[in-house]
Amino acid sequence: MVTTNGHPRIVIVDGARTPIGVKCGALRHFAPEDLATFACEEAIRRSGVAREQIDTAVGANVYQYTAPGVQDIYFPRNVGLRCRLRVETPALMVQRICGSGLQTVVSAMQQLAVPDVMDDSKTALCFGGEVMSRTPKVLRAPRSATNFWEFEEGGAVEDTLLAGLNHDLANTSMMLTADEYGHQTGVTRNECDAFAAESHERARAAYRNSYLNGGDALRGMFAIDATDLNGQPVHLARDECTRNTSVEALAKLRGITPNNLVSAGNASELSDGAAAVVLANRDVARQHGWSTQFEIVGYGVCGVDPRIMGSGPVPSINKALGRAGLEQRDIALWEINEAFAAQYLGVEKQLGLPREHVNINGGAIALGHPLAATGVRLIVDLMYEMKRRDVEHGCASACIGGGQGMAVILRNTEST
After folding, report:
1. Catalytic pick from 40, 241, 395, 399?
2. Is 395 helix (H, G, I), strand (E, B) or coil?
3. Which residue ranges form the domains of the chain, and what is each CATH number?
4. Is 98 one of the annotated active-site residues of the chain?
5. What is the arithmetic mean of pLDDT over 360-378?
6. Could you give the dihedral angle defined by the CA atoms of residues 308, 313, 319 and 321, in that order, rounded to the nearest 10 degrees?
7. Is 126 considered catalytic here?
8. In the predicted model, is pLDDT for residue 4 greater than 50?
9. pLDDT by residue (tens digit) across 109-121?
10. Tell me, what's the pLDDT at 5?
11. Is 98 helix (H, G, I), strand (E, B) or coil?
């Protein structure tokens, strides 16, 4: 519990996310650092928090070394420097695979909530960025024993993207875990295709009514007008992965898992994007006149059997609800990452979730799943939709490769 027992209350002052680019699409020639900087600049602008008032930065990037000439090892520090935070403002990289974006928020919240004698930070910039289009192949050649700066002959060529989607220790892969979890919970292929089609339709409807089109939806998104690493101008004001499809079209796609539940059409899209939020101690935010509308009231992280990693949201959501002192019925809006239709549907069945309140503007099947950015994207979209619909509680959650789950619960303190 983070709102009682004398602990400081932590709020999300504001946030922003880029449009999500389809693999090898409009954002393919940006570095994760570039996209995260764009998102952070927009989040800072919206928050009204001065750059010099940000005490710490927490960033996430899963696939390292995705852009030539860009040092992803310095990812969070470089983003902070490019956003002109104080040189003294430290930066931390966190990595919890698909939960990395959520982890930036939790780690920053914990840092802001501890007593000043341990850490006197009062504000934090949290962000995630991923460019899956640029995941390289590498030659796994060991260094020479006779000359450290030379390499031995041979070595296997590795596709770093595929290597990350497999879990060798558990002898499985992400799509196999979704297939097995869906099978165990009674999910059918037709249900998977129907859900995928629904995700795309919701995303298309949200785009038609988007803020960038003069409507009132997707206010967390901002348009990218920038020059990419190749020197080409880019304008993107929509999620590129969303398409017009149908259950009939999806059903024609070949199943690629033993139980035939997963196909290329009902899995999340490999993609590129970034998102950011600014956190603050609520009392400090009030003193400066910053928004205190969205408060973090609970979170949960759990481990599950790696062979059914998609079940991770179930125990993590229950843990978050318990810490927040809430019941499932108290949550009016949900953002649950759609890693695979079979995986999401398993969670829906186990928790008895009302689909009309989950991923109402589409999920990762239609929007894309840029790994480290996804958790922050979930929170940004959730926050703005909670405001638009004037609801009190919302929950963002994701399953995590390797067999984990994570959830964060927000409260809209201005809900009527």
Report:
1. 399
2. strand
3. 10-135+268-410 (3.40.47.10)
4. yes
5. 98
6. -150
7. no
8. no
9. 999 999 999 999 9
10. 53
11. helix
